[in-house]
């Protein structure tokens, strides 16, 4: 026993001496283990191994260290622990960490957050601790092998708010990073080369083994709180409604809560726009007494309306040249696949913003408010127009339906006019017929619909009002923001029914009129693969709350007309090229035409062209086409390409008004396929055509 004790004392003494000996003295007698595949690994080594304290219950058998190994044995007489500080020197020029420590068991605890993480920077020294725990009297021996590895940088581009993202991964380690809601990965490089071995699912990118510096080029939308729209302003006896789905092809309109508790009537942040209806006279009082959630028989409804709240917009250029909207995926916006139009709702009390309607950097700026939201009020005594701030405008949900005679004044009997789905639209009328019809609905037949004849202004839609709907549809609040649709399917689907029946959908944006099928407006069959719902895909929201027939169906005349004069020619200054509309003005040849005085100027938009005989956009000079300036918000110059033809956004038609066709017609018709769409602009003579209809608007 005495010999054994003397032997242990000698071992302890030798161990203490060994712990104070420098690395260089030991390296020549120790085997080096570990994978030395590159210089950085070879230049990172253990340079110190020191006991912080030694408990009386523990006898150290031996301790030694080499480049990557620690040898240690001990004997304990009871429960105890000892902690060692390990010094590591990195002589390389890169960050290094510990890949693994082999030879451990459950009694050995390595300092937390050491393995797999950065340990030591370039040309520097660092330390970490290892603790040996014993719960019983025992003798143990360890050979700990430490494998060092390089730390590689993870760089993100095209992604915001990356401060908390993983920026470094140890060689061979897995990268797993959530990139945020609605994010996408556009490309990944590793070691400077394209890397395809990653997976991307549930907004998380996973790279199983990082072997070089990584650059992740991605997309994640800027998180912005949606702005609140002005509440809808109901006129007269208008009734708020919402759609209750029974099954994919059936449902009913029910009376909504006007106070919109729990977004039960509308939720623009979720692309759910407010709808309202007017009721036939002999059922009106009955329906007004309905409780909220009571179904309203479609036979009781004579017109249907959708609220477009007051907003400002701006358009971004992602490539620094073309203003095709903002990216919402990895895809760069183009003319044929445009991006998002930024929209913010503004208060009814807010003055119009008059910025450039374009970004000036990466932040949304240059906000502009469409003049449609300041529809003028007319002083009856001196007939002067004063812009009036509107909280929004009502737009007819479908093209007008029913029947009407040739209307030539604002006192027509238009009691048979409706705005409903599944009925052929009213067509074969001149522009003046459509205008007088719309005004008569309020001025002569208010009792038929329950409108207030003395408040608000029901009229034929103007061109800037068309633009207000189109831009909202291309925003986060419209079909563009509806996640049920992807890619080209974000375009409003065409109504390809050759019978011009309202609310029908071809199930795609450019479906031919020769296709044998179309869908009802409320057919919610899921078409899959980012195509969304069959019928509502033809609305401006991609769901049933939006506005229909704005792509295809019938062409829609709008109140937008050419001012006849050529720039610099004074003889015809201020005169209107009214064509065959029925309104007094000038024909294409410059002679007088028409029977009816043009209405108050607040009811139409006027346009000038540098070459009035041409309908080609390049001939127009769009910088001065609207009141000597740009046509902000009209879905014209801002949403067309470099020439005419299929050069509007989504490849829609892009034609200006001319002397031969002085009136704008919008949306295309059932047979226009690619050329049809909410951004389609074309021209007509104002005459009665079997494929031409119109749209109604109401400024409350």
Overview of the structural elements:
There is one protein chain. The strands form nine sheets. Strands 2, 3, 5, 7, 9, 10, 12, 13 and 16 form a nine-stranded mixed beta sheet that branches. A seven-stranded antiparallel beta sheet has the order 18-17-19-20-26-37-29. The N terminus is likely disordered. It has 700 residues and is mainly beta.
Top keywords for this entry?
9-stranded mixed sheet, 700 residues, 7-stranded antiparallel sheet, 7 helices, mainly beta, 37 strands
Q: What's the Cα radius of gyration?
A: 37 Å
Mean pLDDT: 90
- Main beta sheet: 9 strands, mixed
- Point out poorly predicted stretches: 1-38
Number of strands: 37
Q: What is the terminal separation in angstroms?
A: 107 Å
> Into which percentage range does the β-strand content fall?
25-35%
Topology record:
Elements: H1 2-19, H2 23-27, H3 39-42, E1 44-51, E2 58-65, E3 69-76, E4 80-90, E5 96-102, E6 108-110, E7 118-120, E8 124-134, E9 138-157, E10 168-170, E11 175-178, E12 184-190, E13 193-194, E14 199-201, E15 204-207, E16 214-219, E17 239-247, E18 250-255, E19 275-279, H4 281-288, E20 301-309, E21 311-314, E22 342-345, E23 368-369, E24 377-378, E25 385-386, E26 392-396, E27 401-402, E28 417-418, H5 431-443, H6 446-449, E29 457-460, H7 463-473, E30 555-562, E31 585-586, E32 592-593, E33 605-607, E34 663-666, E35 681-684, E36 692-693, E37 696-699
Parallel strand pairs: 9-16, 30-33, 30-36
Antiparallel strand pairs: 1-4, 2-3, 3-9, 4-8, 5-7, 5-9, 6-8, 9-10, 11-15, 12-13, 12-16, 14-15, 17-18, 17-19, 19-20, 20-26, 21-22, 21-23, 24-25, 26-37, 27-28, 29-37, 30-34, 31-32, 34-35
